[in-house]
Write a structure and sequence with these properties.
about 240 residues, mainly beta, seven-stranded mixed sheet, six-stranded antiparallel sheet, about 45% strand, globular, acetolactate decarboxylase activity, decarboxylase, Alpha-acetolactate decarboxylase, acetoin biosynthesis, Acetolactate_a_deCO2ase
Length: about 240
């Protein structure tokens, strides 16, 4: 039986901070744990969106590419979708207003949940990065070289996760959202948007299953106490 309250996370966001970008899990294995989610690829190869069981990569050029099961990830979050409608958007909505409204409606600050907004966006801004080569730079260095993409009157889905601040480092404390257009014309890590229409739905995830890349020697030997994890995540995300 599929567990719809389960968030499966592979790796940690913290492992990306010092540049541990090696893909250590195939998508074919990741998708056994969920049909919906976000992540990144081997070498920090773009931004991932998994929608209705189909994985897509938004690469550094902004192109949306359908992926096969052999594509590998260093970090990803997935779950089996069972969203419940929260509200219809009837006035101008931005990322800040979306977060404020959702958190004002629900006492969910201490649990994980997934959020989804489908609508037509007057303006939307996303970002992605090119695949990195060894020796890998740090996450912050990559963030400084990100590529931004802008769209107008684009219909699509904003989707991602809220993680309690207690888990900042393992994940992004707060909201971590990606976007993909219905026509696959654009996508990426969400930076900004404005919309006057759409439907917002959410799904509480009160069970966290985390798998670590214990077969990766670099990960197992790295000393994370030397990394400014919270500072790097705040700057990069």
């Amino acid at each position: 039986m599929v567990k719809t309250n389960n968030l499966y996370q592979y790796g940690t966001l913290a492992l990306l901070v010092p540049g541990l970008f090696k893909g250590t899990l195939k998508l074919s294995d990741l998708l056994k744990h969920g049909d919906t989610g976000i992540g990144t690829g081997d070498g920090l190869d773009g931004e991932l969106v998994i929608k209705d069981g189909t994985p897509y990569q938004i690469d550094g050029h902004g192109s949306v590419n359908k992926l096969d099961g052999n594509f590998t990830v260093p970090f990803a979050d997935v779950h089996f979708a069972d969203y419940k409608k929260l509200f219809d958007i009837e006035s101008t909505m931005t990322p800040d207003k979306l977060e404020e409204k959702v958190m004002g409606m629900k006492d969910w600050q201490n649990t994980f949940f997934s959020i989804k907004l489908h609508g037509t966006f007057d303006k939307i801004k996303t970002r992605s990065v090119y695949k990195q080569e060894k020796p890998y730079p740090t996450l912050v260095d990559c963030a400084h070289k990100q590529h931004e993409f802008n769209g107008e009157n684009v219909t699509g889905t904003v989707m991602g996760y809220y993680s309690p601040q207690l888990f900042n480092g393992s994940a992004v404390g707060g909201f971590h959202l990606h976007f993909i257009a219905d026509d696959l014309s654009m996508g990426g890590h969400l930076l900004d948007f404005s919309t006057n229409n759409g439907e917002v739905s959410a799904q509480v995830l009160d069970h966290l299953e985390q798998q670590l890349p214990v077969n990766d020697e670099e990960f197992m030997k790295h000393d994370f106490s030397k990394d400014d994890i919270a500072g790097a995540i705040g700057e990069a995300e």
